[in-house]
């Protein structure tokens, strides 16, 4: 089971630019390393990250073997309305993990 950490404000003013930071615990094995038995270790990486704000994608990234273990992603979006941000990671071997966070937007 992966562990994700999301850091973002719980509240914002309409039109405010907010920073969102997401980190997920994952070993990210490239598939190029050799194990103790001399055989290649199987590739196991997160390949895709998507953030949706009230169902609309506001950020997405394709990840490759060069990404470090426990990938950290930071990005900005504009607070338009109160709602839910959903963060989804997908990877090799059927890996999938989602987290949700609420954002309350005020008029002023």
From TrEMBL:
Which InterPro entries does the record associate with it?
Answer: Ig-like_fold, Ig_E-set, SoxZ, SoxZ_dom
The chain positions of domain Sulphur oxidation protein SoxZ read: 9-101
* Domain of life per record: Bacteria
Any idea what this protein is called?
A: Thiosulfate oxidation carrier complex protein SoxZ
Which organism is this entry from? Duganella alba
Organism lineage string: Bacteria, Pseudomonadati, Pseudomonadota, Betaproteobacteria, Burkholderiales
